[in-house]
Design goal:
Helices cover 35% and strands 22% of the residues. The strands form four sheets. The chain has an eight-stranded mixed β-sheet, with helices on both faces. α1 crosses α9. The longest helix is centred in the N-terminal third of the chain and has 26 residues. It comes from Ancylobacter novellus (strain ATCC 8093 / DSM 506 / JCM 20403 / CCM 1077 / IAM 12100 / NBRC 12443 / NCIMB 10456). InterPro entries: Aa-tRNA-synt_II, aa-tRNA-synth_II, aa-tRNA-synth_II/BPL/LPL, EpmA, Lys-tRNA-synth_II_C. Keywords: Aminoacyl-tRNA synthetase, ATP-binding, Ligase, Nucleotide-binding.
Length: 347
């Protein structure tokens, strides 16, 4: 019979974790210097929200807000500060960043924690290519805080001083899975059967009831993500428009979105968009995702009407969400995300 693990506040456990926590402090300070030097303003966003976000597989924490008159209404702990950040862009802010505590239910692994810190930053009137440059520079600044550009996670290694490789999702499917993804992607819908058959031929286990999106995710997880960010960082860009989330279509090819993800040591660090500012299209996507959520999980989250109203006056912008705890974990050499969190949530 094994003994129970010592709590995080045990002096011996804390002593083992403290070097990682001090690295966290140095990195946070370095990043604030990074953004100040580029004329960003740091903002704070409220945790309690009307909607936690409307992505299909996102699971949120719900609570009740009691008004002074005794009436109650449901509120959610935000899964991202994105809606508030975009409202601030609508209000007139040009460059902003936030280190926000965010909450996601049902997520606890070596790379996930139910309460974690999200670094988000936004540039009004600038394209998402500017965020790609930010990512490369931010990795170098983080490396300066820990004294090394050679990062490792498990058996994987990456030199973050090297310029990131830019790789489209379509090229990644061909390179790592031998699948012509774009042959299954159309402006009016995707060919589920074509992708399902191609994935099966590539040796990926697929289920009869898998949707196009399900198969896409299986290929990403099994064949592509394990090979990204090895040796140098990877910027994986131009996701199919059906996987666009809150990103706008690419003008030169509306089948794909202005979206990219940053990978280091096969770990996804960040997700970036050329931001969608079409409120009607955003509503359509939200409703589609909530219909799918209700079909799968039997629940749906409300739409933040205030956010859609702000979207109508928000300027063209780009924005990115980066997992700060993951960044610290990779930079400091920690094995688990809980090693870089001062006080992890109780199991």
């Amino acid at each position: 019979m094994s003994l129970p693990a010592s709590p995080w506040w045990s002096p011996t456990v804390h002593a083992d974790r403290r070097p990682f926590l001090l690295a966290r402090q140095r990195i946070a300070g370095k990043l604030r210097e990074f953004f100040a030097a580029r004329d960003f303003i740091e903002v704070e966003t409220p945790i309690l929200q009307v909607s936690p976000g409307n992505e299909t597989h996102l699971k949120a924490f719900a609570t009740e807000l009691e008004r002074p008159d005794g009436t109650r209404t449901t509120r959610y702990l935000h899964t991202s500060p994105e809606f508030t950040a975009k409202k601030l862009l609508a209000a007139g802010e040009q460059r902003l960043f936030t280190l926000a505590r965010v909450f996601r239910n049902g997520e606890r692994t070596g790379r996930h924690h139910p309460e974690f810190t999200m670094l988000e930053w936004y540039r009004a009137h600038e394209g998402y290519e500017a965020l790609m440059a930010d990512c490369a520079e931010l990795l170098v600044s983080t490396a300066e805080a820990v004294g090394t550009t050679a990062w490792r996670y498990g058996d994987q290694a990456c030199d973050v001083a090297l310029a990131p490789e830019r790789l489209t999702v379509a090229d990644a499917f061909i390179r790592f899975a031998g699948i012509d993804l774009m042959a299954t992607v159309g402006e009016d819908g995707n060919d589920r059967d074509a992708l399902w058959n191609a994935a099966r031929a590539a040796g990926i286990r697929v289920a009869e009831d898998d949707t196009w999106a399900d198969v896409f995710t299986r290929v990403m997880v099994e064949k592509i993500e394990p090979f990204l960010g090895l040796g140098r960082p990877t910027i994986l860009c131009e996701y199919p428009i059906s996987e666009a989330a809150l990103a706008r279509p690419k003008p030169s090819d509306p089948r794909v979105a202005e979206r990219f993800e940053l990978y280091v040591c096969a770990v996804e660090l960040a997700n970036a968009f050329g931001e969608l500012t079409d409120a009607d299209e955003q509503r359509r996507r939200f409703e589609q995702w909530m219909d799918e959520k209700e079909r799968i999980y039997g629940e749906r989250y409300p739409i933040d009407e205030d956010f859609l109203a702000a979207l109508k006056v928000m300027p063209e912008a780009s924005g990115i969400a980066l997992g700060f705890d993951r960044l610290v974990m990779l930079a400091s050499g920690a094995r688990r995300i809980e090693d870089v969190i001062w006080a992890p949530v109780a199991p």
